[in-house]
Amino acid sequence: MKKKIIIMFLVVLIASIYSEKLKVAPMEEINIVASIGYDINKDLKDNVQYSIPLSIYDFKKKGVGSRGITSGRAISAEETSEQSSSLIRAKANSIGETREERQLSASKPITIGTEKLIVISEDAATYGLLNVINILFANASVNDRDLAAVCKGKAEDILRLKVEGYPSSADYMEGMIRHGGSYNFLSQNYAVLNIYVALDSEGENLVLPYLEMKDKNITFTGMALFKGSKMAYVLPMEEGKIMNMLREKKGKGILSVQEGPDKYINYDAMVKRKVKCNKREGKYEFNIELDFQGDIIANTLYKDMKKENEKEFEELMGKKIEKMCNDFLNKMKNVYKIDCLNLGTFAAAKYGRETGIDWNKEVSDANIKVSVKVKIDKLGIGQY
Amino acid sequence: MEKVKNNLLEDNEAIAIIVGFVTSIGILSLPNGVVKDAKQDGWISVVVGGVYPLFLALLSIYYVKKHPNEDILVLSKKYLGIILGTICNLLFLAQFIIYFIGIASGMSNVYICHATAFLTPIKIFIPVILVATYLAIKGVKVLARINKIAFYALVMFVLTLLTALQRGNYLNLLPVFGSGYKNILKASLESAYAYGGLEGIFLIYPFMRNKDKIKTVVLKSTFILIILYTWTTFICIYFLGYKVTSKALWPVLLVTEGVNLPVINSFRVIFLFLWSFTIFRTLGDYQYSITYILGYVLKVKDKNKIYWVTVPIAIYLFLKIGGEVQRRAFLGYIIPKVTLFNMAYVSIIAILIFIKDKGRK
After folding, report:
1. Which of A141, A145, A197 minimises the CB distance to B244?
2. In chain B, helix, strand, coil percent, each to 5?
């Protein structure tokens, strides 16, 4: 009897602790975020106002849809609901304060974690990423695998753009970056997690996709190159492609040898990069080995691919790539003066970390040699 | 008679329970502690720090050889006298209480931050301590079986980190020994504290069935521990670099974000689910040991009565610790002292056993 009373007492005590209402809301009463943008407004006195637009999904029900629920008949998604997105903008003097500001113009609570990508405007990127990264890193509900990109103009405009067939422009941009890896030697790693790592690794410089709005369409026009946490240059895609080739461990892309408007060979290749670092008389030396392996996808240059022709092509292609790379390296050393290829990480790994060396300067003064190997794998089913 | 026999631990169960005493919150936060001094060589410090559990393991082998059926509580009374022995036993108890509080509050901090942000600490503590108490009431045999299940969960979640291998950068680990021997040794002290909890061996060994196999059991479990800790530290540095590792409070959870599985938005929650097995069984282990020591010191016959006192006190103490920064400050202050006491206590008794044994001959 005594035991039963004690147990009942305990049950009541514990239940009373749990009876307090939980801070949770049903799915329908939450704004689901498609994307986060970062804009910045500077005034004359170096003061900065952060403007953070959120792209939010709208789920609208069409008239037909309501019948489906009561009759229990399965109706495809297109019939019942329409997905689109809208924008909620908030401005404040610091990033955290924008949440407060945003809630004033939103009808539902906002939770993050579902966002597809993070768009940083060019101005905000030039101002510096540290504040943005700081708040993202601390927040456990941010998905660290979200992609990140820099955009021309304002993030707000690019997020507001409607893309045909997509619920929001963020979905379109996410697909573009995620599947970009098969060409242009683009890396697969443009996620927020990679930004955390890149900003904090010695000798590493961050590179992010650069998106542009052209004629109501979004295109991937180049690579945004950062120096520390601040964006320094935007490389156009032709240059960005060569940089990616030299920078990433692995990449895929198309290279070609052309002798006339109708005489060319297209080479769809995969490249693997190896770097060796040496130090001679206080000067660093880097040997970059590029190993190409790929298929010839179009050939109007040679009548048919014989063994000699193959060798000739491999030589020609190798020389062309070497020239491209050397041109880029010259520009990197003399114009950008930034270690775009992360060569500093190799030197730091070999000669010690935290010695106070400015790797951007060291690499700009260093001897960088590129050696290229080209190999043909397949020719397709034959030559027409 | 049959019942007593069934209550003894098999070798596997003994390994699981020894591993269970140590691996809990430390497996998530240890990389953060060691990289502060040892930088990219943090994983080497973890290996070096393995000297401490190895030392305890070797002493326990010696204990079992001399006194297979008497645990450390009995021995300390026998060799240090009743008064001094009881004081030492109480101090020995204090370290279990400190670990217990540290683990429980650390667990609630992880869960509130990463998974169940809508719960307040007390709502997490109540089911946790009830589960731990339930396990402890069931006795050492059930506890050992749970430990075995949790051991598989532990190995599984540690192995999922293998997938991060393809996305990291080996350059993050170079140059090896680049941070200097002094820093590596300094950080290895930090890692030695993470191995704390292995003292549970000295309570467990009388329950073992095959006491002649103590050597393999203890050494195996120690090496499993060293490998587990070294691997998690290694993968964190490999994947994130030492600077990011030192910034994240639980860097291992950041690595789990890198595990890319189709359909699943974030692997972190699954990882935390597997980890919850290990944390519950560790708390059960500690709850059992605390009651066991208290029951011995206070000479209580019905041990289940002790829980009526320990559970409310434990919940009160859990709530006192607070946030992760305060928790780490508290543990950082007290754990070195506890560890020092432990080493002294365990080795002094070993020396006394050695001296008295010689005298008898």
Report:
1. A197
2. 85, 0, 15
How far is Cα B219 from Cα B215, in angstroms, rounded to an integer? 6
Question: In B, which residues are within 8 Å of A140 by CB distance?
Answer: 113-114, 117
The minimal CB distance from A193 to the residues B126, B247, B258 is found for: B258
Domain enclosing residue B244, as ranges: 16-360
The correct answer on CATH 1.20.81.30 for the domain covering A249-384 is: no
Residue A129, φ and ψ in degrees, nearest 5: -95, -10
Q: Which residues contact A59 (CB under 8 A, 6 or more apart)?
A: A81, A82, A83
Q: Does the model's ipTM exceed the 0.95 cut?
A: no
- Neighbour-count burial of B11, counting CB atoms closer than 10 A to its CB (0-12 exposed, 13-18 middle, 19+ buried): middle
Q: Which residues, in sequence order, are CB contacts of B18 under 8 Å at separation 6+? A: B198, B200, B201, B204, B217, B218, B221, B222
pLDDT score at A66: 43
Residue B182 lies in a domain: yes
Backbone angles phi, psi at A6, to 5 degrees: -65, -45
pLDDT in tens, A118-131: 999 999 999 999 99
Nearest CA in chain A to B167: A189
Name every chain A residue with its beta carbon within 8 A of the beta carbon of B252.
none
What's the pLDDT tens digit per position in B143-183? 889 999 999 989 988 888 888 888 888 888 888 888 888 88
Q: What is the DSSP string of B274-302?
A: HHHHHHHHHHHHHHHHHHHHHHHHHT-S-
Q: Which residues of A touch B (CB under 8 A)?
A: 14, 17-18, 22-24, 113-114, 137, 140-141, 143-145, 189, 193, 196-197, 200-201, 345-346, 348-354
**pLDDT for residue B360:** 66
CB-based contact B266 A140, cutoff 8 Å: no
Residues of chain A with CATH 3.30.300.210: 249-384
How far are the Cα atoms of A360, B171, B310 from residue A342, in angstroms, in the given order? 9, 11, 57
Residues in chain B: 361
Does residue A121 contact residue A50 with C-beta atoms inside 8 Å?
A: no
Do the Cβ atoms of A201 and B172 come within 8 Å? Answer: yes
Would you call B217 an interface residue with chain A, using a CB distance cutoff of 8 Å?
A: no
Task: Retrieve residue A360's tokens.
Answer: 């951007």
Whether residue B150 is contained in a domain is answered as: yes
Residue ranges of chain B whose pLDDT lies below 70: 1-6, 360-361
* B40 shares contact with chain A (CB less than 8 Å): yes
Residues 6+ apart with CB under 8 A from B196: B22, B95, B99, B335, B338, B339, B342
Residues 6+ apart with CB under 8 A from B57: B198, B201, B218, B219, B221, B222
Chain B nearest CA to A191, separation (Å): 10
Q: Domain tally for chain B?
A: 1
A contact test, residue of B243, B252, B261, B316 with most A CBs within 10 A: B243
Residues A187-216: b if buried by 16+ CB within 10 A, e if exposed: bbbbbbbbbbbbbbbbbbbbbbbbbbbeee
Contacts of B122 in chain A (CB under 8 A): 17
On whether residue B7 sits in a domain, the answer given is no
Q: Which amino acid is at A373?
A: K
What's the CATH number where B28 sits? 1.20.1740.10
- Chain B residue numbers touching A351 (CB-CB < 8 A): 175
* Nearest one of B324, B317, B288, B350 to B33, comparing CA atoms: B324
B300 is a domain residue: yes
Question: In angstroms, rounded to a whole number, what is the distance separating the alpha carbons of residues A208 and A226?
Answer: 8
Q: How many residues does chain A have?
A: 384
What single-letter DSSP state applies at residue A29?
A: G
Q: How far is A22 from chain B (nearest CA, A)?
A: 6
